[in-house]
Amino acid sequence: MSHRQLKSETFPLNRQQEEIYIDFTNSDNKALFNIGGYVDIRNSINEKLLEIAIGLSIEENPILKSAITLKGLKPVHIIKESNFQLQVFDYSSGNPEEKSKIHIDNEFCKEFCLDEGQLYKVGLIKISEERFWLYFISHHIIIDGAGYANWIRKIFELYQQLSLGKTPLDSRDKTFLHIAGEHATKTNAKRASKSSLYWNQIFHQLPDVPFHPLNNSTCPRKSSSKIVLTIPPLEYSSLLEKAADKNLAVLPLFLTAISTLVNRINDTDALVIGTPLHNRTSKEQRGMIGAFMSMMPVKLSYSGDQLISDAVKQTSQLLKSGFRNREYPLSALYRDLGLLRQGRKRLYDVAFNYQQIDFDFSEYGVNARTHYLSHGQEEVPLTVTLCEYGDKQPTELQLDYRHDFFSAAHAQGLLDSIFVLVQGMIEQPDISLNSLNLVGQEQAKKLIELGQSKTTVEQPFISACEMFEHQVVANPDATAVISGEYSLTYEALNARANQLARRLRTLGAGADSLVAICLPRSIDMIVSILAVLKSGAAYLPIDTSYPKQRIHYMLSDAAPRVVISSKTLQADLALDSENLLLTEHWIDGLVQYSDQNLSCEQSGNAKRALAYVIYTSGTTGEPKGVMVEHGQLSSFVNQIKHSYKLSPSDRMLQFSSIGFDIAVEECFGALCHGAALVLRNEEIVNDIGAFWQFCQQNMISVISLPTAFWHQLMEVGKAPISTSLRLVILGGEALKYAKACQWFELTQSIELLNTYGPTETTVTACSYSMRGAPQGGQSVPIGQANINTQLYVLDKHMQMVPYGAKGELYIGGDGVARGYLNRPQQTRQVFVEDPIKPGRLYRTGDIVRFQFDNNLEFISRNDDQVKIRGFRVEPQEVSEQLLKLPEISDAIVHPRKLENEQLQLIAYVTGEKPIKSTEIIAQLKLSLADYMTPAAVVQVPEFPFTQNGKIAYDQLPVPKAEDFYVREYIAPQGEIETLLANSWSRLLGIDLAGRLDNFFELGGHSLLVSRLVLELNRECGIELTVSDVFKAKTLSQLAQTIEQKLLSKTIADEINELDNGGWL
């Protein structure tokens, strides 16, 4: 065989190989750079001839015999001798495919050593007499996907010639190494400068990071997995024909679909996708075995009303522009943009690979299908691959996803959605991007089912008052309500409520009229609530601790027919005396009225009649009155009977403000199920010990608390928790994972129920029950839908998002309120028609997603999105990290704009001892990304609360100068730190670095890391790795790593000396 002899001992790498080399040396996961696949051969094979054919192909292509070594500071090829022997493995005896996949996976995860050569593996596995798997694995630096196709085709060409008794000849003048050498000697400064300007202009403003790691502590051993959607040949060819008819090219079509999906589910307007460039610009190069491929970032941004056809054309033009400027290295762009300083590892978190390769080998007498390998070690969170391998095998749409970003179900939902979007874009290219459905029919059906309660209760409507009256008949002498030393039985409570109801009717109370209740927490307050409902009117609860201005606003807005209050409050709050019913007049004034139940006609508690109006907190403007009907109240009371399992043996604490909808849960939860309602006093709110003592003395079995207040109760060692408890219900704010774990350390078995629900959907819409520490993550879900409730996760266009993707929560079902009192426009904005089936939905404004276990996870308020340097940050995640520090008792993280108008994260913490902000932030920097680290830590004695028990964020103090993190310069200490500081200063062009400085914050990048490692290894005689530099947060930490390596080397040298007889 003749082929051109190589005249040089070393050959330079081309630009693409140099990029791979830089990434490889900077990575601590070397197997990540393996690529490969296997050919599923469906006919018999002459193993010896196949071995000869492979050996000949290696001899013809010296790149396959090369090793990569350093010549000075420059990586080069050197050619090594090859004596190829084909390894054959026979797994045909049982479960051959399973055994073969395990074998190939094990080989694929093994690292190659660049300077040892033979950067490939080829093996033959026998599946049966007529079926074999020929697998190829190599380092990406010597071959790319197109190169593999050329190699396999060359092997089968040689195999056929050998089978026919012919002598294969190689008449090529050039090999890949010649082309790589020519490329390395050609530089065009003008062209490179132009390309640099192009890319820096494109990326002068980086889009938001699209994905963030899950709060999941149970990731599998492999960091990524692959899922496959197989498209039958006829279906795919039909799609291609339709796309061609409408001038939609495959690559820009899929890129547009992926970008549309990610931007829609993230509510962003731009996305960077990495896509491979084959860079084979001549016929000669297209047939070569070697590595030409490079990654090109494509920044895609569309307006939502843009036509699909226009968006695809825009993508096509961007691809052409990028290709014209392909000479500029990606590593140089990373350096220009200072990605590492911004806390970004990559320019793109999504990649798309269009593998359009003809793997039809029938012309060589081989019946085969080709499959590429995934090693389960992907660094990019989401990689989509379209495998179009010719007419002989189905086209595959594959998705590799990282487990720390996506669950398997979420990834499957995304893959399905990509194909749904592609189909929709081909079918209707002249509609807007926003008009496209993100999910197909099958996934939509699954999402609807996930958002429904597992139990549906169909029963005749019975009002809450009737349920209470049934308990009066069943348990007349049982205690209904307790307030300090006073109590009423069910019969006595009912009698007083009936008398007051009749009095109210004489004052004009009736169907859909309002009666305000402005009383302190008392038995009279409970009597009034029942009486108003029995009269046929709806009650308007007013907390007496509200500011006078707010109370007057509510009364003016609602215009109640009657106001129930007391003489003291009348004076204090300056209440209008007209239609005022004072409790002091009850003793004599109610005797004349019957204490028997009112007739149905009198009470008028029809399903669509108004039951109560509760004013929301008004954090975004004036408070709004939410109108809840009897049908919604009745449905809720029936729901909690099932979920709380309330019975006459229970005692339920009445803790919440009457103006908060949890009071509805407490009052009707107890009184409609025969339990005793125990009213708290004011002292227990500010004394944890007194709170638990009160619960124990009153034998409280069920409590429903604002989450923020419960967090304060979880102060370790403050007081013993009441042993009478069986159920704790929480709601109002996100439940902290660390506090939930702490609860079960203290109580072992008392059920914790994390509930979620706006006032507009009647107290709660979903819940998550725990009898032990939450499993599978670092957040507590809000659970699954209540009975007769429908939950949807939708984008801003009210389209379903794929499973696991973030979206806004919409709530439907029996609990959706009538709307806002006197506010028809605002009602229409948030109470909307169900786009999927008949009914109404409430738009919550809360961002959620389905977790891997089908529970909903609360992410944030839609209007509370925190974006720091392009990263979306969830303050709850930062709070959880703060709670891991022993000096912190409780923590909340809140974004606020300070004097420089920059949005910054501020941490507010409580603790028994004074804390130093700089020390706390320094500890956080060890576990949090820089953009997630609070700018300041403010210690407060306690958190301020609203009347409804939620955190009053507007009352949190503005940070002082001493609360901010200031890194002081501390001079390097010792020989190693001084050596490091001098090296950093020389490489970075700065004054002497300090021991607390970070290499990347000072301007370091991946190229400089490689140079730093080479210098330090030469200077210290150790084997420091690039990953050691990346892991070290400070100069001091890197110095410690070097000292440990020096110590290990010293010990190893001493052992070697002893082994060699040095002790004699």
From TrEMBL:
GO terms for molecular function: catalytic activity; phosphopantetheine binding. Its cofactor is pantetheine 4'-phosphate. It comes from the Bacteria. Keywords: Phosphopantetheine, Phosphoprotein. The keyword Phosphoprotein applies. Residues 971-1046 form the Carrier domain. GO terms for biological process: amino acid activation for nonribosomal peptide biosynthetic process; secondary metabolite biosynthetic process. SMART domains: PKS_PP. SUPFAM superfamilies: Acetyl-CoA synthetase-like, ACP-like, CoA-dependent acyltransferases. One of its GO terms (cellular component) is cytoplasm. The keyword Phosphoprotein applies. PANTHER family: FATTY ACID SYNTHASE, NONRIBOSOMAL PEPTIDE SYNTHETASE. This is Carrier domain-containing protein. It comes from Pseudoalteromonas rubra.
